[in-house]
Amino acid sequence: MARDENGRDRFLIGLLMGGLLGAAAGLLLAPKPGRELRADLRRRGEETFEETRELYTEARDRSRAIMDEARRKAEDLRRQAREVLRGAEERAEGVIEEAKAELKKVKGAVEAGVEAAKHEFSKETDRNKTKA
Asked: What is the pLDDT along the chain (132 residues), one digit of tens a residue?
C-alpha cells in the first residue's frame, strides 16, 4: 500500500511540476509586456508555493497518522505479549505446585515403604534369633 501511495505522490508531483514548467514556458513565449509577464509569473509562483505547502501539510499529516497507528499497534503487541507471558508463568507455577504435591506423595510412599521394610526386616531378624 505504501508503494502505491508513493507512486501516486510521485505522479502528482510530476504532474504539478510539468504543469508549472508548461505554464512558465507559455508565459515566457506569449507576447505580453514585461510588467504583465512578471505579474503572471509572480502569481503562478505564489500559487505553486501554496499548492506545495498544501501537499507538504497533507503528507506530514498522513505520515503522523501512520506513525500514530504504528505506535498503537506496537503497544497492543507489547500488551498481548505481556499477557501471554503472564499466562505462561501462571500455568508454569500451577504445574510446579502439582509436581511438588506429587513429589510429597511419592516421598511419603517411599518413607512408608522403607518403614515397612525395616519392620519386616526386624521381624525376620527376631525370628532368626529365636530359631538360633
From this structure: 455 567 777 888 888 888 888 877 776 676 667 788 778 878 988 998 898 889 899 999 999 999 999 999 999 999 999 999 999 999 999 899 999 999 999 899 889 888 888 888 887 777 777 776
CA distance 115 to 95: 30
- CA pseudo-torsion sign 55, 57, 59, 61: negative
Cα 52 from Cα 97, distance rounded (Å): 67
- Give pTM, 2 decimals: 0.45
At residue 98, what is the residue type? Answer: E
Please report how many Cα atoms fall inside a 13 Å half-sphere around the Cα of residue 34, on the Cβ side: 0
